[in-house]
Amino acid sequence: MSSITQVQQELLGRMQQLAESATGPAIKPASQATDDAGGLFMAAMRSVDAQQHQAGAAMAAVDSGKSDDLVGAMIDSQKASVSFSALLQVRNKLTTAFDDVMRMPL
Q1: Shortest CA distance to 49 belongs to which of 90, 92, 87?
Q2: Membrane spanning segments where (predicted)?
Q3: Which residues contact 79 (CB under 8 A, 6 or more apart)?
Q4: For the segment 24-49, what is each residue's pLDDT rounded down to a tens digit?
Q5: Whose CA is closest to 21, among 34, 36, 7, 10?
Q6: Residue 78's CB: how many other CB atoms inside 10 A?
Q7: Quick check: 16 pLDDT over 70?
Q8: What single DSSP character describes residue 65?
Q9: What's the pTM?
Q10: Higher pLDDT, residue 31 or 17
């Protein structure tokens, strides 16, 4: 139950962040926009990294016999895998968008 509550709290926090950003000015200065985007992407990378370390620790604990929670370790591993795949897709979309903007005629 706590993991469901945690996910709900994270989603609520994201919704509040989006609501706050929607109330601001429509166009931000370039320096401020890139700082925000870079910070968000770095935060996402840190979150994915933390999930991968947690999954690795859980798998190591099961491998060494310190833990009997094989199902939990596999779930953590799948969560980390899905998070990494999602981050990779976002990176690919950003790269494609950047390439498209660079190819635009002036």
Answers
A1: 87
A2: none
A3: 51, 55
A4: 665 566 555 555 666 788 888 899 99
A5: 36
A6: 11
A7: yes
A8: T
A9: 0.61
A10: 17
